[in-house]
Amino acid sequence: MESISLKQLKMPLSIIIIAILIGPLSIVLTTMSTSNLTGPNAYGYDNMRITGDKQSYLKFVSAAEMNGEMNNTSNSAQTQIPESAKGPAIPEKGYLVEEIRDNLYWVTDGSYNTMFLVTDEGVVAIDAPPSIGQNYLKAIAEVTDKPVTYVIYSHAHLDHIGAAAVFPRNATYIAQEATASELQRAMDLASNTSTIPPVPTVTFANNYTLQIGNQTLDLDYYGDNHMPGNLFIYAPNQKTLMLVDVVFPGWVPFVYLAISSDVAGFIKSHDIALNNYDFDIFVGGHLTRLGTQDDVKTQQDFVNDLEKAAVKANSEVQFADIAAEVGNTSDTWLLYSKYIDAVDQNCVQTMLAKWEDRLGGAAAFMPTHCFTMTEAGRVEPSLSAILQNVTMPDIANATGN
Ligand SMILES: [Zn+2]
Q1: Is the pLDDT reported for residue 70 higher than 80?
Q2: How far is the CA of 264 from the centre of ligand 1 (A)?
Q3: How close is the Cα of 38 to the center of ligand 1, in Å?
Q4: Strand, helix or coil at 131?
Q5: What is the pLDDT of residues 247-271, one digit of tens each?
Q6: 24, 113, 204, 209 — which has fewest CB within 10 A?
């Protein structure tokens, strides 16, 4: 089995992380700069920023191509993804819009996705991924001529809400209060505030129900997971649950457990989704397709196995052994680097034995997931407590290895 060093990953990953956060913005910025935006939608992005973002995006494209993620014609084993990771084809126009059920629609570009609800009093748009950008408005216009009257932010990350400027400024913007605080902080720091999505004016601490006619959206907050303020958005009529950047149907999460700010909260989110909501459609915000309850259960299994593999790696790899191997050195960080790599490789081998062929992107991102679970497991009190209850894994034996 080929193991990948964290160090080998650092360079392209940092480019991908930056580019995923900033890169897609270039698409909407380019679109916006070339279209005739007037009135409330006209945001004043400056040309310097557009130029910089284009460069970031190109870096992202080239990095992704190097990883084989965007090369559909290659026969390289690295490009193989499980059938379950594949989604519907994206039309030439660059996006797909489909009704989920009863006036609730999802829109996707194959990398990002989100949903909107058409009501008697206008459209409720959730999030605004820059990679979809102006196509979000085109998708809405395909199914209704009603205006967007409400905008809900799942969380504050710009790769999901950075194109909110496409919506009318007189719409009502709703989010959990931590999301509003973060956007207000950004407004206060920014030299060009037009690049920051509108700060929500309707905020709440724990729960908010948006009731329009006979259509309902429940917005629920259970504490930090992927990021403070990240919401569970539930459409009861449509039995659809949206939770962004936690569960990735058909795929492993984005790097480092989707750069979760609270790993214990990230783990708990799976239980909350499955225990608190009656849903059969899941919208995760990313990648190729809609999900189901089974996708949430699959990722719950994945995370459970990752906990076990992390406990195993942390107990089997001894710092003293690594120090003895490295020998006399005054470079303490070198020692830690060797130790972290050894723990990570132990965890990666355990995990890939079971998951390499089951979820898209497993080989590419497993070292980052192992790093997050093992490192956070050593230092974060809540995660450390969770891992106390984890028994040593039998994952390798389960697959006959
Ligand atoms: Zn996010």
Answers
A1: no
A2: 16
A3: 30
A4: coil
A5: 999 999 999 999 999 999 999 999 9
A6: 209
Rounded distance from Cα 91 to ligand 1 centre (Å): 26
Q: For residue 160, how far is its CA from the centre of ligand 1 (angstroms)?
A: 7
Collect residues with CB below 5 Å from ion ligand 1. Answer: 157, 245
Q: What spacing in Å lies between the alpha carbon of 347 and ligand 1's midpoint?
A: 25
Pair 334, 7: CB distance under 8 Å: no
Tell how far the Cα of 183 is from the centroid of ligand 1, in angstroms.
14
Candidates 3.60.15.10, 1.10.357.140, 3.40.630.30, 3.40.190.10; CATH matching 86-302: 3.60.15.10
- The answer to whether 259 and 298 are in contact (CB under 8 A) is no
How many CB atoms within 10 Å of residue 24?
Answer: 27
Domain boundaries for CATH 3.60.15.10 within the chain = 86-302
The dihedral through the CA atoms of 398, 348, 381, 335 has a sign that is: positive
pLDDT reported for residue 47: 32
Stated pTM of the model: 0.81
If you measure from the C-alpha of residue 227 to the centroid of ligand 1, how many angstroms do you get, rounded to a whole number? 7
